[in-house]
Design brief:
Distance between the termini: 66 Å
Order of helices and strands: HHHH
Helix content: 55-70%
Largest sheet: none
Oligomer: single chain
Strand content: under 5%
Number of helices: 4
Length: 97
Amino acid sequence: MRASHADRERVIDALKAAFVQGRLTRAQLDTRVGQALAARTHAELAAVTADIPAAPDIAQPIKPARPPSGNGAAKRAVKSGVGAITVIIVALSGVTS
């Protein structure tokens, strides 16, 4: 099956990651990027990265827990108050124009 430009870019990104992780030398990276750019099929692309072990997943930063939400009625009151103020401002801006 023919490889797309996006397929080649993904392989090049994987090669760059392997270089950063110390799995490839600069010379190996350069050679393999050239091979990836010249590859026309998925099989040719797979051969470029066949001997590179899959990188371990990089841990995602833990998002801080959201503070407990307050009273739902209070939130609705604030939202409706903001809406009411917006309506008043719009109405008054039409009167003064």
